[in-house]
Structures are given as C-alpha cells and as structure tokens.
Amino acid sequence: VLPSFIDVGLLTQTLTAECFVWNAFFDVQSLALKRKNYEGITDTLGEELVFAPLEHAFHIVISMQGTPDVDGVLLFSVDGVSVPLAITGSRGLVWGLAPERGLAETWEWLTHIVTGLDHSEERRPLRDVPRVSYGAVYAAVGREAAYAESLVYSHRAGSFVLPLFEQTVRIPSPAAGSERLAFDTSGGAWRDGGRGILWRDALTFESFSVASASPDGLTLKKPLARALGGMCLAVPCADARIEAFDRTDEPADASALRVQWSVSSPLIWAERLPESTYDGFPLLDMPTYVTGEGLSRDVSVPKVVLDNGLGPVRTLNPCPYARATWSVLVPCQTPEEIAAMRGALMAWRGGCTAFWLSTGRHDFVPAGDYRQTVGLAVRRSGWASSGLAPGRDRIRIELADGSVFLRRIVSVAAGPAAEEILSLDEGLPFESLPAAAFRVISFLTLVRLAGDSALFTWRYTQWAADVTFSVVEVDA
Question: Is the full-model pTM beyond 0.70?
Fold first, then answer.
C-alpha cells in the first residue's frame, strides 16, 4: 500500500489523498477491509476490494467534520496477513476573532542549576526553544459571540489556527486564484510551510498555507479560493490549543472572552546577540526603564549554615556581598527593535548567558566641567569619605549628542565642596567638557535573567511591544 501512512498535520480544510494498492499475484485477489476511528474520513473502496493484478488507485477524503484528533486506520487483510494504512494528524479551526487589547506573549525556558557551597553556579539550558503561550481578551457581539461559543464548545479539546494580530500587515485584497502575495514580511512570523490568513472580520477571512516566504512576499501552496474585496489584513498564524477559557456575558448581547493559548509548535526566531560587547560580554544598550520595585539591592547576604544537630552551629559567608534584582521593561517601538529583543532572548536561553545592562538612571550627576587631566567631578555619594571601594565600578556615560562611552572607575577621591572625583581607566576623548554636555551617567552591571521567563505585551496592530523580564547581578 502506498503511501504507508498519511499525516495530515493540522487540517484546516477537507483533504483528498490519492493512494495505491498493489496486487503482486497473477490472478484476481479479494481484500477484506476494516476501518477504525474513521469519523470524518471516507474512501472509494467499498466494503471489500476485488481487483486484478498490478495496481489499483483509490482516494481517501479527510474532512473537517470529526474528532479533534485524526487517528484513523484502514486495514487490508488477505490470507491472514494484515497491512495497515494509518491516517494521523489533527483538525484545526481558524480562530477568527481579533483581540480587544492585543496579546500577552510569554516565553518560558527551563534551566538546570547546580549551586556549590561557595555559591558558585553551573547552569545548563534544557530547552533550545522556549515554550510560548498567549493570553488575550476578545470582545464578541451578536453573531461573533455565537461563533466564538461554537468554536470553544465544539472544538475545545482540539487545535486552532491562531492569528497573531500583533504582526498584521494591511494589503489590498488579492484576486481569487492568486498564488503570490507581495508585501513586506520582515519581522513577522512567516516561514516556509507556515500558515496565515487574509482577514476582514471575525467571519470573513481566507486561510492559506505558505510554500515559501521571502522578505518581499509569500508563495502559496494553493491558489486563493476567493477575493475578500477592498483592504484586508495579512496575518501569520500559530498552531495552538486552549489552556484556559473564561466568558463574561454583558448587556446588549455581548460577551467578553479571556483565553489562554498554548502554542503547539513555537516559532523559532534567529539568535542575535547585541553587536556591542564590553569586557567579553554582550551589551544590551537599548532604552531600558526599571519598573516595579526598581533597583533593589538584597541586604541579606547569601550564607551557608553548617549544623549537625550536636555541636555548635557555624555560619559561612562565601558570597560576602548582596546582589540586586531588577524588574526591567524595554519599550520596543519598531519591528527592528522587536527583532533585536527576540534574537537576544533566544541567544540567552533563559538564565544561562551574562550580559551588560545599564540602570538607565542618573546614578551620577556631574558637579562641574570634565577635564581629562583631573577626572570626572560628580556630586558626593559618600564613597570617598567612607573609604569603601564601589560595589559596581562600571559606568555608562551618554552625552547630549548621543555619544556613549563605557568606562571603569579606578578610584574615588574627595573633591572641593560637595564633589567627588572619579578616576576612569580611560579618559574621555575630550580635553574638557561642560557639565551640560552629559545626558546621563549610570551604572553598568553584569546581569543574567533571574528567571526562565520573559513577557511581550503587544500594543495591538502597532508593531510595538513592551518586553519585561527580571535580571540578577552576577560577578564581573
């Protein structure tokens, strides 16, 4: 029997497969047929197959009517020998509703961490690709509410084709029979063998499969069946299942739907570490803003307690300093910035890769003009008077013209009045600079992701997202 099995993948429309069975005998043979889990599947063979030598062709039709999982078997039996033809895959319905307030996209890695008594760590990523989930809110009125209810309750255990509306591109509706869609696909989740839809509203759309994707457009596996007319949205899609669902009925025949999606096959984004490096580590030099509790340094120093229950208790402090944990928000305003964040997160693979990150704060305020022979005068912080070396000695200096310089503080000395003089490992390439020429001077700290997750909060159809994650300091 050819093929030996049929894998329909994620089925979004009726599929007809041509198959062949071969009679190697010199006379007519009769095959007994048995069908299992054949709901939504039909064939052209009848109850028994009687055919002459050589080859016989037949067709199997897999429709969208049936169970969410396709697991049918067509069994050919002759002289006590059985040959199975397995039909596998899943039925996927297109979720046509657009989210009311965009999507919350969560990435989750899995990191194996081994911690020694001296608080040294060995980290290994257990996932090359993060698991992806989406949380969305949908507003449905009238027939859209009925449509959503039928989708959820008739197919809640199955797969859906989930449009990623945050990556839409508005294009003129192609004509029926079109096999090529020409538009800028950069930054979107378009790939060879992927899925997409042309969308006008929740009940008016056309799904398609991508044969090949290029930066200037898509080549489709099959021609479009119809034209939507006017303008429409080209939307990439992901295969997803509903993990949680909540519906709130509102007046005037309206409903608010809250759906949590789990993506079956997460999209693979190209790894792209930041091009800038400093002291051997990549530098994430994007507009960053510390949110939540801000830059909070943990005053409880990590320690090891030795207690055998009999003798004295000993406390060791192998890590004699505190480490800050930050909650960071990176507002991405363009597809290029979003792609940069995706690439960096893919390269970090959870909390396994260290990188430099600026606090984005005015940690030092210039107190006078900069002179290369003297150093950088800043308002007094107390370091010089206390005689303590700085806990973090790297700084990021940004000038008003946008120039950025990364330096290490070698020493701190008391200056006149309420000033301190920072001696840098390398002077700025200016003999002197007025205090007004400095935009911001902030700490530059070596960090890694504190957890195994990152969140993209999308601003619906604006190609903009707020990326949030937590980081913790590591030893430079």
Answer: yes
